[in-house]
Amino acid sequence: MSRSSPLRKRLTTEQLCDIWEKIRSDPDARKALERLDKAGFRISHLKPSDATFKHPSWADYIAALPLLPNKPSTRRIHLKTSVRKYLPLVRELREFATTLGSPFVNLEIFGSRDYPQFNPRTVREEVLKTASTLEYFLSLDYCVRYLNSRNAVIAELRWTIRFRIGKPHDRDLNILIDAAFRAAGFKDGCCIDATTLDRIEKRDKESRVKANRRIRYLIGASASSRR
Q: How far is the C-alpha of 83 from the C-alpha of 43, rounded, in Å?
């Protein structure tokens, strides 16, 4: 998850399975799943299987909703100009590798107690690989978005339902969200009206667009300043 919205504590697949089973045993939620299945978004047969969210199913997403943080999204923009001062290290690494590969150079390494198995041949390849990796990283401009985890999942769910079915089925989605919160122990559940669901999805899309525009502007400004 994100820096801005880390999980309060690590989720487990067992925990998500417990919530999912409670959702499926809720009469209203069961009917909502049946309507979605019939419409073309078939998920009632699924079961949470990945609490790490590396390869999640829709059951993972729905069951995790009440456990995901609801914090504002943020972004961090990194420009390669901010790390330009480290470029000499790339040259130093390559010069060191050249020295290791020379047959007529006697190299003595001091302070290498952490590497008692020092082998000039293997170290040379590792140093060259490190130099290439570092040079690549120092050439990057990038933007990291720290998402509002809960809203990101809701937005993805709503978009996918509409894409597969042709309409968002907000009533059924809202029933599942409410059932998930109740299954997780929230007595009041969670009721999100259609207007709020629409706003969550639009904001998720807009934040991506704004981030891309911002980094393009900064890259352009940085390039102009070097001319």
A: 47
Q: Where are the beta strands (DSSP E) in the chain?
A: 74-78, 142-146
Q: Are 147 and 154 in contact (CB under 8 A)?
A: no
- State the CB neighbour count (10 A cutoff) for residue 153: 23
Coil, strand, or helix at residue 29?
A: helix
* Residue of 160, 198, 192 lying closest to 178 (CA atoms): 192
What type of residue is 184?
A
Burial 48-80 (b: 16+ CB within 10 A, else e): beebeeeebbbbbbbbbbbbbeebebebebebe
- Report d(CA 201, CA 150) in Å as an integer: 11
Q: What angle do CA 174, 19, 167 make, to 5 degrees?
A: 25
Q: Name the one residue in this structure whose structure tokens are 């890259």.
A: 219
For residue 114, the 8-state DSSP code is T
Q: Across-strand partners of 78?
A: 142
Contact 145, 210 (CB under 8 A): no
Name 142's bridge partners. Answer: 78
Angle, CA 56 vertex, CA 186 and CA 171 arms, to 5°:
50
Tokens of 34: 């049946």
pLDDT along the chain (227 residues), means of 10: 49 95 96 96 94 92 94 86 94 91 77 60 86 95 87 93 92 95 92 88 76 66 54
DSSP 8-class letter at 78: E
